[in-house]
From TrEMBL:
It comes from the Bacteria. Keywords: Kinase, Transferase. Gene3D superfamilies: 3.40.1190.20. This is Carbohydrate kinase PfkB domain-containing protein. InterPro entries: Carboh/pur_kinase_PfkB_CS, PfkB_dom, Ribokinase-like. Residues 5-297 form the Carbohydrate kinase PfkB domain.
């Protein structure tokens, strides 16, 4: 069995990207500009693979044009697709996951999700042993309840020697702390945007971080967009500033941040350096439309932050 350092587990989507003048609900022309493979964990895994980290993925696609795009992008980055399920799409109702992404002139975004075959993944199709030889398993959200419960069961089975990272996003954070407790208890590295800390706990972000650190995670990271990020462990807390760049689109910025942080983790870098790499990688992401167009290779990233051991 092929061994991957980092394995992603989450929804696999294609992003249809549109530019709009603003994000108001009033009549507003939308101009299609690109189609890209996406999905939160998939974006993180793609970013890591582009930096040379061996990666794999667990998920499901249809055998339609979107599914083929998702798989071709993974193959291009030499990502292990042996645990991705393929659904035959002879029925027009069976399609790969699709996200319509609307981006305004300030780089802000609005998303509409059609989960497609992501909602069909069953626990019998997943071999949990695949996770056991990884250094890191990175969990992100699905839309449907069934996959939420599958992840909740599987995360408990991952041995302690494997680092579990979890980026719940708004979809899972809005379920609340009680629903996510089984995830958080087994999570080592927790990634949250500031608004998600409130959705999850109903507390200010600092009180939320204090609470979360008592529940299992050894590192809790809260991102603030262009204001930087707050990183906390039981022994230290610090802020890393965001790099000043021209923001074109914030789609996937959090996914890129997670990739940078996990790159540091698999290379055994100090936590502060992990966060600096994360911030640098996210700054590349926001300078292009879509989650992946701006992702750097190792040489490009090392030009702005040290990757040397």
């Amino acid at each position: 069995m092929r061994v991957s350092k980092v394995i992603g587990f989450g929804a696999l989507n294609v992003d249809n990207i549109f530019k709009v003048n603003n994000l108001s609900l009033a009549e507003n022309p939308a101009h299609p500009v690109d189609v890209q493979a996406g999905g939160n964990a998939a974006n993180t895994i793609t970013a890591l693979a582009k930096l040379g980290v061996g990666c794999g993925f667990v998920g499901v696609v249809a055998s339609d044009a979107y599914g083929k795009l998702i798989i071709s992008e993974f193959k291009r980055r030499n990502i292990d697709i042996s645990r991705i399920i393929f659904r035959k799409s002879a029925d027009s109702l069976i399609s790969s996951g699709l996200v319509e992404t609307y981006v305004d002139k300030r780089g802000r975004r609005m998303l509409f999700v059609k989960p497609g075959v992501n909602g069909t993944l069953s626990i019998n199709e997943i071999n949990s042993d695949y996770f056991n030889k990884a250094s890191v398993v990175h969990f992100t959200s699905f839309v449907d309840d069934q996959q939420f419960h599958i992840q909740k069961m599987l995360i408990k089975k991952i041995p302690d020697k494997v680092t579990v990272s979890f980026a719940p996003g708004s979809l899972y954070a809005e379920r609340g702390l009680k629903a996510l407790e089984p995830f958080i208890e087994r999570t080592d590295i927790l990634f949250l945007a500031r608004r998600e800390t409130y959705y999850l706990t109903g507390m200010s972000f600092k009180k939320a971080v204090e609470k979360l650190l008592t529940m299992g995670p050894r590192i809790v990271i809260v991102t603030f967009g262009d204001k930087g990020s707050f990183i906390a462990t039981k022994g230290e807390q610090f802020i890393v500033k965001a790099r000043k760049v021209k923001v074109v689109d914030t789609t996937g910025a959090g996914d890129a941040y997670a990739a940078g942080f996990l790159y540091g983790i698999v290379n055994n870098f100090p936590i502060k350096r992990c966060a600096e790499i994360a911030s640098a990688l996210a700054s590349f992401s926001v300078q292009k439309l879509g989650a992946r167009a701006g992702l750097p290779n190792r040489k490009e990233l090392s030009a702005v932050v040290s990757l040397a051991k």
